[in-house]
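Worked problem 6 (solution included).
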Amino acid sequence: MTTLDIRPPAVRALTWLLVATAAATAGVELLNFWYAPEQGFGLAVRTGWALLRTLGWLILIWHVRRSRAVSRPLGLILAVTTIFAVGRLIVPRDGVPPLTGLVGFGVLTTLCLTVVVLLYRHPTVRNHLVRYPAKLVATRKGLEWRESAPRRPPVAAWVITARVAAFTYSPLILVPAVISVGELGRRPEYILAVVFWIFVGIGASYAVLLTTFFLQRGKAWARQLMVWVSLGVLVIDLPLCYLLLGPDGLIRDGAPLVAAAVLACYAVWRAGRTAAATDAAAAAAPA
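Solution. The predicted structure is:
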């Protein structure tokens, strides 16, 4: 017996668009690696990390099919970082990018922008992505895995966006740090800097986890802490990118982190404005 797909047409179209985007992401990165004049360790690491974004698109499809509200911020950060990740791969150290790379990058950019527009601007899609994640709850029949509304107030969309963007800090730091390991053969004096860089990448994930824990609970100081964490990772990562990987590494590996940090800080700012407006409306309401 065939199960009917009762999702709205716009949501079905979004799902197929995400499938096409995931396929295009993998295809463009592999084509770029094939046509690259230098297939060294750095390009291999960057291509491998970029290919992992295909898995991210598949996870996004899973959330969209289950009508999860987290789909919007996840799609936004995936689109932004994918454009930067693929864009840095198609630009060679010398000369101009191959025509196939430019065409593929143009197609992928169009797909990513279309995904963001559908997620944030299409009313049917926005009304569809409202479900809470399932969790284990106790019922009269025992323990069941079902959707359950959280006991605390729902987390604001901009807070979720800031959380998703900030969780990309750690991998965006670790990728150039791992690439710099290949530079130690001819520059062994920087081994301590590379080790420090790797520890910063790991520590960033714990700092973000702690900050977002309080951010989701509406703590005003957590919004300020998120900004400081974002500035901290930029102050450490960007100079190390330039020192160990040169201007090319600064552009290829620093730009995606800057984009993620700007998005996180903007989301925190918007979340603060929303919270202030909510508090003002509550204060003005008659008792």
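Discussion: The radius of gyration is 21 Å.
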